[in-house]
DNA sequence: GAACTATTTTGAACGCTGTTCATGAAGCGT
DNA sequence: ACGCTTCATGAACAGCGTTCAAAATAGTTC
């Protein structure tokens, strides 16, 4: 026998990721996978319950990879002795931007998939991976000496990262390409600058006067 | 004849929006629309070139409605004599959150649709509607007397609004419900507070030291 | 009103999709 | 060699978007 069961699974996932990357979720077809992997349609369903599970598995790999590049970026800065909070957050954001650009089709598919999942059942391994990303940001914020307790620092980390995420994804809704990358980076610089200054100044957690509904 | 051509189109769009709202893009089926509208499948394709055009038309309606509620919220504050920038931005964010909550299925579908569109052709009426939203935010920022020229104010508006958008959409990736709404609002309060303080303090536009790639 | 033309509505039909499952091939212990 | 288990196979099914020849309807002219 040439290939182990797990080896074939990985081959399938690699093919699936490529398909997602070039055509989005609607390009992930059982027959295409089978053909490219040199197996039959039925065998795909032998390895994975359905295409959703294939998609989920691909997403796991992506989230894992994103976490790894984030940690690597932090380790790089550590090695260079960079401790400045703004620097480090910008570096993380840059890593995120590069990652999204490197996965033009499959990363949007992760988001769309997650959105469908929102109505479905309970939490699972997905959230653990996302939380890991937030924890990295929270760790960076901990280094900067704002007067934040753990809860507020966690809130700040989630807020900051969701904002970066929004900038990146909103940015790619529009059309241009090279100019778009610049625009996104300008927005991120502004966001991070304002965020750090706002936290330094303190009082960011004073209760606002307006609440919805 | 009971219904005009345009009346039937609107009926179809109302049905389509309902379908999108309860089941996302994959719930928008030609046969379901036809059945619920009391016409045949072929007639749907007589009114719209394909389902994508139906989806696009629904999205237009949603974006229009979102712009209208945003303007209405601003008009309300004007009537109450509220001029505080932070107040007004929070009110806009609240309007956006309410809108997203009111369209749990169809709004995500707008985003997913936009993402697919990103790889496709040139700009169209979509972008005009999105720009209108940014302009409202930019108008609010103009009232606040930061030392911003038009370009920088526009950048700040896009940054702020993309961030709010990211918080709202990221928030609904996770699971909980009532607690999730609170979390989102806390993040928005923090973001807006930090943003306004950062802009007031000035210097947010100083060049950062790190750039990607 | 009748006859003719233009327009619109219709739903069967086509090709594609995800998914299933009876069938058969392949491994494996004895 | 035999039975037993496990796995790979692809034809078959239901459902999808989309098309288009034919039927129904509307409109026009006498």
Question: What does this molecule look like?
Answer:
Two copies of one chain form a homodimer. Chain A has nine helices and no strands. Chain A has 213 residues and is mostly helical. In chain A, α7 packs across α8. The longest helix of chain A is centred in the first third of the chain and has 29 residues. Chain A is elongated and about 60 Å long. The mean pLDDT of chain A is 86. At the A-B interface, α5, α6, α8 and α9 of A face α5, α6, α8 and α9 of B. Chain A binds a DNA duplex (30 and 30 nucleotides) through α3.
Task: Provide the descriptors you would attach to this structure in a database record.
mainly alpha; 213 residues; DNA-binding; elongated; homodimer
Q: What are the SSEs and their pairings?
A:
The structure is a homodimer of 213-residue chains.
Chain A: H1 5-23, H2 30-37, H3 41-47, H4 51-79, H5 85-102, H6 106-118, H7 125-143, H8 150-171, H9 178-201
Helix pairs in contact in A: 1-2, 1-4, 2-3, 4-5, 4-6, 4-7, 5-7, 5-8, 5-9, 7-8, 8-9
The first copy, chain A, binds a DNA duplex (30 and 30 nucleotides) through helix 3.
Give the strand tally of chain A. 0
Strand content of chain A: under 5%
Q: From N to C, what is the helix and strand string of chain A? A: HHHHHHHHH
Radius of gyration of chain A: 20 Å
Oligomer: homodimer
Q: How much helix, percentage-wise, in residues of chain A?
A: over 70%
Overall mean pLDDT of chain A stands at: 86
Instruction: Give the overall form of chain A.
Output: elongated
Q: For the terminal residues of chain A, how far apart are their CA atoms? A: 64 Å
Summarize the biggest pleated sheet of chain A: none
């Amino acid at each position: 026998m040439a290939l182990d069961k797990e080896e074939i699974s990985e081959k399938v996932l690699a093919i699936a990721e490529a398909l997602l990357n070039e055509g989005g979720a609607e390009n992930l077809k059982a027959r295409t996978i089978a053909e490219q992997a040199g197996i039959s349609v039925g065998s795909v369903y032998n390895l994975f319950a359905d295409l959703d599970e294939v998609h989920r598995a691909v997403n796991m790999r992506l989230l894992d990879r994103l976490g790894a590049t984030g940690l690597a970026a932090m380790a790089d800065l550590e090695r260079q002795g960079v401790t400045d909070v703004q620097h480090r957050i910008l570096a993380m954001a840059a890593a995120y931007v590069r990652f999204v650009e490197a996965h033009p089709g499959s990363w949007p598919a992760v988001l769309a998939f997650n959105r469908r999942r929102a109505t479905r059942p309970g939490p699972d391994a997905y959230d653990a991976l996302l939380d890991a990303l937030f924890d990295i940001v929270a760790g960076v914020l901990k280094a900067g000496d704002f007067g934040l307790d753990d809860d507020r620092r966690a809130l700040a980390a989630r807020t900051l990262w969701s904002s970066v995420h929004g900038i990146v994804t909103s940015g790619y809704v529009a059309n241009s390409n090279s100019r778009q990358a610049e625009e996104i980076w300008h927005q991120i610089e502004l966001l991070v600058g304002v965020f750090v200054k706002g936290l330094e100044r303190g009082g960011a957690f004073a209760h606002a006067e307006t609440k919805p509904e």
